[in-house]
Amino acid sequence: MPTRHNKNIEKFKTGVIMAEAQNTYINIDKIAQLKGLANNRTLRLEINKENSKYKARKVPVKGGYTYEIEFSTLEPEIQEKLIDEEIKSHALIPVNNNINNIEKKSEFRTEKLKLEALAKVDIIKAVRELRAKCRTQKEADLTFLELYNSGEYLKDVYKIIGKVSARSSLLRWIKTYEENGEKAHSRYFSEDAFKKLTGDNKELYIVEGANHVDLYDNLEKIPFDKIEQFFTTYLKEGK
Question: Is 217 helix (H, G, I), strand (E, B) or coil?
Fold first, then answer.
């Protein structure tokens, strides 16, 4: 895939929703995970520096406290990872939760729902990794359930989600995770974010028949011409 197209896709994917996340605070454990750190000690040390590069706040938890860092002060690569997960995890929040709020505005969900959705994403990723090692998907799914429900595998996720009693739950989550296209109920997220953008240099383009995964690497469905036309027009004219 051409480098120019890669850059345009990333701008198109993140630019529409960036404003939604600016004042959101992210738990340092999640940030440590995205950075590939074994624990959050490095982040805590940085936060407590006099001239820390992060804007953070202290949050009370059972038995002590933890920290959350404001999204806008995180490194660009971490922001992109969080945005990508947010897009996908929206589809994993039950439709019957806060449905009136969905119609009123698009915003990061309550901490509880957000943690549950992201925990399901971790489960999905673990299942996919196991599927690549097993002879059949069913064998992988059942093996995963046995390991996960022991409480010793993905311990942090287990504390949030609890037991997953049926394989059908895994299949439903994976299907919902992948269906992030024109008919996905998470589509409202981009549409609501688009409404909040000011100015005339904006456009919401729905790729018919495409899902979220298609728009990453399906060269037949990614609208390169449309993306290039948009950025050529508005970057050139400085709009």
Answer: helix
Distance from C-alpha of 226 to C-alpha of 8, rounded to nearest angstrom? 10
Q: How many Å apart are CA 93 and CA 176, to the nearest integer?
A: 10
Cross-strand partners of 61: 64
Contacts of 144 by beta carbon, 8 Å cutoff, 6+ apart:
126, 127, 130, 170
State pLDDT tens for residues 149-194. Answer: 999 999 888 988 889 988 888 888 887 776 654 544 456 567 667 7
> If you compute the radius of gyration of the chain from its CA atoms, what whole number of angstroms results?
19
pLDDT for residue 210 is more than 80: no
In angstroms, the CA 189 to CA 137 distance is 31
> Tens digit of pLDDT for each residue in 92-133?
444 444 434 433 333 444 466 667 877 888 898 899 899 999
Write b or e for each residue in 13-25: b if 16 or more Cβ atoms lie within 10 A of its Cβ, otherwise e. bbebbbebbeebb
The whole-model pTM stands at: 0.39
Q: What tokens were used for 2?
A: 């051409």
Instruction: Work out the burial of residue 62: count CB atoms within 10 Å of its CB; fewer than 13 is exposed, 13-18 middle, 19 or more buried.
Output: exposed
Question: Is residue 227's pLDDT more than 80?
Answer: yes
Q: Are 185 and 91 in contact (CB under 8 A)?
A: yes
What is the reported pLDDT for 145?
Answer: 94
Q: By three-state DSSP, how is residue 26 classified?
A: strand
